[in-house]
């Protein structure tokens, strides 16, 4: 079984990587981009029987910094 965890900075948290990407796109002629939020996707190969609640515990303890990041789990 696989799970994907999408981790993004929370709204209101400064995203310097996203801003660098937005600036670079503008420099390349892509003027229509007004904002970029950069995140990460973590793919987990799980043993049968691993629950979404267990994956959420993994996120809370290691995979996401829940002070500044939010996450979404896809099983």
TrEMBL record:
<dbReference type="InterPro" id="IPR003850">
    <property type="entry name" value="PurS"/>
</dbReference>
<keyword id="KW-0436">Ligase</keyword>
<dbReference type="GO" id="GO:0005737">
    <property type="term" value="C:cytoplasm"/>
</dbReference>
<comment type="similarity">
    <text>Belongs to the PurS family.</text>
</comment>
<keyword id="KW-0067">ATP-binding</keyword>
<dbReference type="GO" id="GO:0006189">
    <property type="term" value="P:'de novo' IMP biosynthetic process"/>
</dbReference>
<keyword id="KW-0547">Nucleotide-binding</keyword>
<comment type="pathway">
    <text>Purine metabolism; IMP biosynthesis via de novo pathway; 5-amino-1-(5-phospho-D-ribosyl)imidazole from N(2)-formyl-N(1)-(5-phospho-D-ribosyl)glycinamide: step 1/2.</text>
</comment>
<comment type="subunit">
    <text>Part of the FGAM synthase complex composed of 1 PurL, 1 PurQ and 2 PurS subunits.</text>
</comment>
<keyword id="KW-0963">Cytoplasm</keyword>
<dbReference type="InterPro" id="IPR036604">
    <property type="entry name" value="PurS-like_sf"/>
</dbReference>
<dbReference type="Pfam" id="PF02700">
    <property type="entry name" value="PurS"/>
</dbReference>
<dbReference type="GO" id="GO:0004642">
    <property type="term" value="F:phosphoribosylformylglycinamidine synthase activity"/>
</dbReference>
<keyword id="KW-0658">Purine biosynthesis</keyword>
<protein>
    <recommendedName>
        <fullName>Phosphoribosylformylglycinamidine synthase subunit PurS</fullName>
        <ecNumber>6.3.5.3</ecNumber>
    </recommendedName>
</protein>
<comment type="function">
    <text>Part of the phosphoribosylformylglycinamidine synthase complex involved in the purines biosynthetic pathway. Catalyzes the ATP-dependent conversion of formylglycinamide ribonucleotide (FGAR) and glutamine to yield formylglycinamidine ribonucleotide (FGAM) and glutamate. The FGAM synthase complex is composed of three subunits. PurQ produces an ammonia molecule by converting glutamine to glutamate. PurL transfers the ammonia molecule to FGAR to form FGAM in an ATP-dependent manner.</text>
</comment>
<dbReference type="GO" id="GO:0005524">
    <property type="term" value="F:ATP binding"/>
</dbReference>
């Amino acid at each position: 079984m696989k799970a994907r965890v999408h981790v993004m900075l929370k709204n209101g948290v400064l995203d310097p990587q996203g801003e660098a990407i937005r600036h670079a796109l503008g420099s390349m002629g892509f003027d229509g981009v007004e904002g970029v939020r950069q995140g990460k996707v973590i793919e987990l190969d799980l043993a049968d029987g691993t629950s979404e609640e267990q994956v959420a515990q993994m996120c809370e303890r290691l995979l996401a910094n829940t002070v500044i990041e939010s996450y979404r789990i896809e099983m």
